[in-house]
Each structure stands twice: as structure tokens, then as C-alpha cells.
Design a protein that fits this description.
The protein has about 350 residues and is mainly α. About 85% of the residues lie in helices and about 0% in strands. The chain has 17 helices and no strands. Helix 1 crosses helix 3. The longest helix has about 30 residues. The chain is globular and about 55 Å long.
């Protein structure tokens, strides 16, 4: 859906995507509490909420990038850190709601809060550019020009490998923590990651405005890999509650840049062609969605085949992510080569 959303943003503006997406997300969440069968859960959470979330993610990042020039990285980082704030707040809110009013009423209260915030967001969001309309925008459906650029293709490959292992801590760290320490800490490991991610989505973006988004992304990609192989893997061998918290903090900070720097990097790779940002960002996210879709099942299969041990999936995540960091590094290097030859401008 991301590529379609990106194209629609370029053609008709951000509200054309964000309003229907907001309705889908709220309806999907509100009806979740009434589900009793598997297909109902699939339609509510997988289809309605999933499509809605995809439609809400792209417009904010694209619009923030279009409004800002010199401070684009910082602006997008501040927008992106909203997701991290939600990741800190919602585990506590939902846990309390489920205890007080039950699951069904809890998710409805949550849907109401999200709905109010989305109304405000849709009123405020707008683009500085006139929409292209169908006649000009339809060309983006068949455009393959982005894939003729070596640096962009290398970045897509790197992003795919990075996202192949990226969600391993988000999905498996709570179970890992529960096997090492108390269930209470396991419940809040994701909140710790998201809390650290607030700083990871602002500080690297601030630096990207000075040193270049792709360079900072390369450094953060290597840093994220290091936290998995140098902190999480040893904690798996030498069980430690403190080690889990340290890993959650460092991983949250380093991985935060994956979301917040993505749009500034795409702008850099497109040489500042902001009116095509929606389709380029959507193309990147569509391809990398397959990494997100397949990464967790692969990691789960590795865990099952290891008798419940987390060592194999940690190694898998670390290895594919370090390979991805290498491709992102190669993309940055290609831009430096082109800059020296005068083909493009790179920071």
C-alpha cells in the first residue's frame, strides 16, 4: 500500500490519503473488541487497521520534508518521534485499561483517543505544493527511473536486509526478558526501546542536517547491528536483567534513526526533487514491507528449530543487518564518487 499511498499524495495531496486511512484505523481498532472469530480479527486488525496505519505513516513524513530545507532532518525527526511517544504511553495505558474495564472496552477507549488526535492531525496537515492531478501523476505508476540510479538501488537492498532483522527485538525481547527475569520487566521492554527511540529520532536527525542524512544513516545502521551482536548476544549467554535494560536503551536509540532518517535520505538520493518524494518513499517502503513480512516468521522458525533458544534468531538478525549496513554504506560511497565527478551533489 505504501507505493500507492505515495503516488496518491503526489497526485491529490496528503489529506486524500490520511482521511480515509484515519477512518479505517479507528474503525478497525473499535471493532477489534467485538471480534470472536479468527477471520474477524484478521479483517479488523490485519486489513482495516493495517491499511489505515500504512496510510497514516507516509503523509506526515512526506509533508514535513516538503516544508523544510536546512532543518529538514530535525523537523522530520520531531514528527517521527511521535510514534515513539505512543510506544511509551500505550503499553501503560492499555495495561491499565484492560485491568480496569476489560479488553473490549479498553480498545474502544483507545480508538476514541486515537480518533480525536487524528481529527486534529487531518485538520492541520497540508502540502506546500499543488497536487499534480491524475494526468501528470499517473506517470508515476509506470516510472522506473529511480531504479536506474545505482545509489538508490543499493539503499533499497540495504534497507531490505536491515528491516529483515530490525523487528527481532520488538517481537522477541519481551519473551526473552520473561525467560531471564520477571514478567513485569518483560511487559515494559518495548516501552524502554521506544523511550530511548525518542532521542534516537531527534539527535541523529539534527546531525544529519550538518553531515548528510545518508552518512548518519550508515553510522546508525552499523551501531544498531553492534548493539545486537555485542550486547544482546552476550546477554543471551550470560543472563542479566541489567543487560536487557542496557540493550533496550541502546537499541532503541540507534534503531530510532531507521524511521526518522528515512525521508531525509530519500530526499538526498533524489537530489531534492520534493514533488516526487511520495512515490519514491512509497516505492522504498513497499519493497521493504516484504522484509518485514518474512523476517519475523523466519526468526520464529529459527527459534522453534532451536528448541526455544534465542541465540539463532539473534545471530540471524545481526548478520543480515550488518550486510544491510554494508549496502547502505556502499550507497553513500557511490554518491561521494558521483559528487567528485560532478554528476550530483552530496553533503
Amino acid at each position: 500500500m505504501s507505493q500507492i499511498n505515495g503516488i496518491l499524495i503526489d497526485m491529490y495531496g496528503p489529506r486524500a490519503v490520511s482521511i480515509p486511512a484515519a477512518i479505517l484505523e479507528v474503525v478497525g481498532l473499535a471493532t477489534l473488541g467485538s471480534c470472536t472469530k479468527y477471520y474477524q480479527y484478521f479483517l479488523a486488525q490485519g486489513v482495516a487497521f493495517g491499511i489505515g496505519a500504512a496510510g497514516l505513516f507516509v503523509p506526515g513524513l512526506v509533508t514535513a520534508s516538503q516544508y523544510f530545507g536546512k532543518k529538514r532532518g530535525l523537523a522530520v525527526g520531531m514528527v517521527a518521534c511521535g510514534g515513539s511517544v505512543g510506544g511509551v504511553v500505550f503499553p501503560f495505558v492499555l495495561n491499565k485499561l484492560f485491568q480496569e474495564v476489560g479488553f473490549a472496552a479498553g480498545v474502544r477507549w483507545c480508538a476514541l483517543m486515537i480518533g480525536v488526535l487524528l481529527v486534529i492531525g487531518n485538520i492541520l496537515i497540508s502540502s506546500p505544493f499543488e497536487p499534480k492531478g491524475w494526468s501528470k501523476g499517473k506517470r508515476s505508476f509506470a516510472s522506473l527511473s529511480a531504479f536506474k540510479r545505482t545509489d538508490f538501488v543499493l539503499f533499497i537492498i540495504g534497507g531490505f536486509l536491515l528491516y529483515w532483522g530490525f523487528f527481532a527485538p520488538f517481537d522477541y525481547l519481551p519473551s526473552f526478558a520473561e525467560s531471564v527475569t520477571s514478567k513485569n520487566l518483560a511487559l515494559y521492554t518495548i516501552a524502554i526501546i521506544n523511550g530511548a527511540s525518542i532521542f534516537g529520532r531527534i539527535i541523529p536527525n539534527f546531525l544529519s542536517d550538518r553531515f548528510g542524512a545518508l552518512l548518519v544513516m550508515t553510522i546508525m545502521a552499523y551501531s544498531t547491528t553492534v548493539t545486537i551482536l555485542v550486547i544482546w548476544l552476550p546477554v543471551d549467554v550470560y543472563k542479566s536483567t541489567a543487560g536487557i535494560v542496557v540493550f533496550a536503551v541502546f537499541y532503541g536509540f540507534s534503531s530510532g534513526a531507521f524511521v526518522s532518517l528515512l525521508t531525509p535520505v530519500i530526499v538526498e538520493l533524489s537530489n531534492g526533487k520534493l514533488q516526487e518524494l511520495g512515490v519514491l518513499l512509497g516505492t522504498f517502503m513497499t519493497i521493504n514491507s516484504f522484509a518485514c513480512l518474512t523476517g519475523l516468521p523466519i526468526q520464529g522458525a529459527i527459534e522453534d528449530s532451536s528448541g526455544g533458544s534465542f541465540t539463532g534468531l539473534i545471530i540471524f538478525a545481526g548478520v543480515v543487518m550488518i550486510a544491510g549496513a554494508g549496502f547502505v554504506n556502499a550507497s553513500w560511497y557511490m554518491r561521494r564518487v558521483k559528487a567528485r565527478s560532478g554528476d550530483t551533489v552530496a553533503p
